[in-house]
Write a structure and sequence with these properties.
By secondary structure, the chain is of the alpha/beta class. It has 2 domains: 342 residues, Rossmann fold (3-Layer(aba) Sandwich), CATH 3.40.50; 190 residues, no CATH class. A 9-stranded mixed beta sheet has the order 2-5-6-9-8-10-11-12-13, sandwiched between helices. A two-stranded antiparallel ribbon has the order 1-7. A two-stranded antiparallel ribbon has the order 3-4.
Length: 585
């Protein structure tokens, strides 16, 4: 690939930062000359022309509109914990491609369809946002344009004036029995996006008189996986991709979660009447906290400030040693130490799942300051036991296996699952029964380091990952980004940037500055050519995981990898202005 000079001239970059929405020809010509990549230009606004009549007048193949109504401005809930400010808008619900399909191991059938909701602001900014939801999908979340739950009520795309879609990804409930239907697997993995995208743009055109000028795709967790898949499969359909804690190797990560339960259960006598709580005694939340404190003792000051945050993540992995730095219990466990057996198990888990030949199934996890939290603990045990067992059995292995609905069923499946002979089933197919694609094929990006289509047309991808994510390893995302750089002569940062959030758990929480607005940064990069040099983040005052000695108004810059926030040496450690994004020494 031809080498590009992609550094913004210092005289141009400050001007662009000050000019949200600037897209005059001189401005664009200057930045395009500097970047050698297209700048797509700013979206132009529109006004809603139609709402209620869309229920009867909109026509698109395989699509049924079940309701269309105008709603006044006001808060819209995403779930019981989150509410987002919404302008006056048209709420549309419907479904696509209704059919009968398989819903269980004995040939049970169910109605399948790709359910969706769209919210179209009366005063539209000319942009479209695909809200990719998390987990197993299976229900249509309110289309508020959410990214991460912690980002604040004004950070949602709907609040900013985007038209937003949300879907159930083609199956009716989160139950993994949909995995017995090959088409439902494909819809969940990638095809729902392929079906919904052109329909949504057509519906927007019917409502506003034009299709969106700019289209964005975003989500966290499985939503981050959806976004990575869209960035490779549908790069011509979207202009910006906002990726959060992506499970883009989700089948591997789910097997890894089960590997963790295998390891933890080896430390305890499992009570058949209290399976989860007895396994949770393997390494308690308090004992995970001991590890976190030891990590801080070794690594906290590597970025120049002893502030309860590990910005120098990679250097920390070199400096921290579990056996040396965490006290080994000489007598009974008392919450201040780990036994040698506990250390051995934790070392195995942090190294990532392996088979008996020591071949990696999933990548390693870094030791970090956010390991001693409720969120970390819940993903290590509750989610791993109850969610991942059913998902691996029903959706990710071929042929699918029914696991059952109890903790007893889940544990039996996990304990009998072989990392040698069962784990490879995530790569298996069964064409005779319609399973022509393996879980790796329908769930993961075809080649996550091949983003040439995205790059060449001027689209951008902005990824964010918490360094204390217990389910989707930040190391996996770092490895992806390093591979992307290698595939692009170390110039991938001109269309893709990765921002790490120190201490943050899965899509939020943890001792972290986990409140930030990344969507504005992405829009500016796509439409103005202003690359994000940092993202200012703050703590959430109501975050129960915040250390008592942190200010409730602490701020930090999130830095594009491999840069890290480094203390300038003076001023309050609670203020982002006293930190600078720098490459590690």
């Amino acid at each position: 690939m031809k080498k590009r000079n992609l550094v913004l001239p210092l005289a141009i970059a400050p001007l662009c930062l000050a000019m949200w929405g600037c897209n005059g020809h001189n401005h664009h010509d200057q930045i395009e000359a500097a970047n050698s990549l297209p700048i797509l230009g700013e979206a132009t606004p529109g006004t809603l022309n139609s709402c209620e009549d869309l229920a009867t007048q909109f026509s698109y193949s395989g699509t049924v509109i079940t309701n269309a109504e105008t709603l006044a401005a006001g808060p819209v809930s995403y779930n019981s914990d989150e509410s987002y400010n919404a302008p006056a808008h048209c709420l549309i619900t419907g479904y696509m491609n209704q059919r009968m399909g398989i819903a269980g191991p004995n040939g049970e059938t169910a109605t399948y369809q790709i359910g969706f909701e769209m919210r179209l602001p009366v005063d539209w900014n000319g942009r479209f946002y695909y809200q990719a939801n998390g987990g197993l999908d299976g229900s249509v979340a309110n289309a508020v344009g959410r990214f991460m739950f912690s980002n604040g009520s004004d950070s949602a795309a709907l609040t900013k004036g985007f038209a937003v879609i949300s879907s159930d990804a083609g199956h009716p409930t989160p139950a993994p029995t949909f995995g017995f239907d090959p088409q439902a697997r494909r819809d969940y993995g990638y095809n729902a996006v392929a079906e919904l995208t052109p329909m949504a743009k057509s519906l927007i055109e019917a409502a506003y008189g034009k299709q969106p000028d700019r289209s964005y795709f975003g989500g966290c967790s499985n939503g981050g996986r959806h976004t990575m898949v869209a960035a490779t499969r549908y790069a011509t359909q979207y202009d910006g991709f906002l990726v959060g804690n992506p499970g883009f190797n989700l089948p591997k990560a789910a097997v890894d979660q089960m590997y963790g339960i295998q390891q933890y259960s080896s430390l305890v006598t499992v009570d058949p009447d209290n399976i989860l709580s007895s396994i949770e005694g393997a390494i308690t939340e308090q004992e995970f906290g001991v590890v976190s404190k030891a990590v801080l003792a070794q690594c906290d000051a590597l970025d120049g400030a002893a502030d309860g945050m590990v910005n120098a993540l990679e250097a920390c992995q070199q400096d921290f040693d579990l056996n040396r730095d965490v006290p080994t219990c000489s007598d009974d466990r008392d919450g201040t130490c780990l036994t040698q057996a506990q250390k051995d198990v934790l070392s195995n888990i942090m190294a990532g799942a392996h088979n008996s030949a020591n071949e990696a199934i999933y990548t390693s996890f870094p030791y970090d300051a956010g390991m001693g939290t409720d969120n970390y603990f819940g993903w290590e045990y509750t989610m791993a036991l109850t969610r991942d067992s059913g998902t691996v059995g029903g959706v990710f292995t071929t042929p699918p296996t029914s696991v059952g609905n109890t903790d007893t069923d889940a544990l039996a499946f996990i304990q009998s699952f072989s990392m040698d002979t069962d784990a490879p089933k995530i790569y298996a197919t069964d064409a005779a029964n319609g399973f022509t694609e393996s879980a790796i094929e329908f769930m993961t990006p075809p080649d996550p380091t091949d983003m040439g289509t995205l790059r060449d047309r001027g689209a951008k991808i902005l990824a964010i990952h918490g360094t204390s994510d217990p389910v989707f390893s930040v190391q996996d995302t770092i490895n992806w980004y390093n591979g992307l750089q290698k595939a692009n002569t170390n110039e991938a940062d001109q269309f893709a940037r990765l921002f790490l959030v120190p201490g943050m758990n899965h899509c939020g929480n943890g001792p972290a500055t986990d409140k930030f607005d990344a969507l504005d940064k992405l829009v500016s990069w796509v439409e103005d050519g202003t690359a994000p040099e940092e993202i200012e983040a703050s703590v959430r005052a109501n975050n129960a995981e915040l250390p008592a000695d942190w200010s409730k108004s602490r701020t930090r810059p999130l830095c594009p990898y491999p840069q890290q926030a480094t203390y300038n040496g003076t001023g309050s450690v609670e203020d982002a202005t006293n930190f600078t994004c720098k490459a590690p020494e």
